[in-house]
Prior knowledge:
- With 181 residues, this protein is α+β, with helices and mostly antiparallel strands.
- It has a domain at 66-157: K homology (KH) domain (GMP Synthetase, Chain A, domain 3, 2-Layer Sandwich).
- Helices cover 36% and strands 23% of the residues.
- It contains five helices and seven strands.
- The protein has helices at 3-19, 67-90, 107-110, 135-148, 150-156, and strands spanning 31-36, 39-43, 50-52, 96-105, 120-130, 165-167, 170-172.
- The strands form three sheets. A three-stranded antiparallel sheet has the order 1-2-3, with no helix packed on it. Strands 4-5 form a two-stranded antiparallel sheet.
- A hairpin with a 6-residue loop joins strand 2 and strand 3.
- The longest helix has 24 residues, at 67-90.
Amino acid sequence: xxxxxxxxxxxxxxxxxxxxxxxxxxxxxxxxxxxxxxxxxxxxxxxxxxxxxxxxxxxxxxxxxxxxxxxxxxxxxxxxxxxxxxxxxxxxxxxxxxxxxxxxxxxxxxxxxxxxxxxxxxxxxxxxxxxxxxxxxxxxxxxxxxxxxxxxxxxxxxxxxxxxxxxxxxxxxxxxxxxxx
Length: 181
């Protein structure tokens, strides 16, 4: 999609939201399934199933990226999408945007060997932008993207996450966890 077509699509969506504010509330869905061992399948909309697996040292066969790598990929690609979207609306030319990410995880937490968190302790990213725009415009773009990126916001803000479980089709009560809110 060209920059102009992207801009037109985004401005159309913004216009629709202004006319009907309730249309801004959307729900995204995914479904996953355990295939075998630690290999899983993830389905989103009508796309082919995504294989998610672990590297051999974590019991997998390396048939796909693992869930914590998906988090990094989600953050990087969301940032890149937001750069493209906002640059098109703001009239800023972009030649390229890439994001390099590192997530720091302590396996003690994953394996229940200490009180270390099971998830990332920290995530660091470096965004590389190629553009002929002046640095002040790029600085405004960076500030806009980093304050409006949905995945970055989800990772840095405390959000309500809850779930249920069932056994053979009947609800089963799990012990309370941090994920229940």
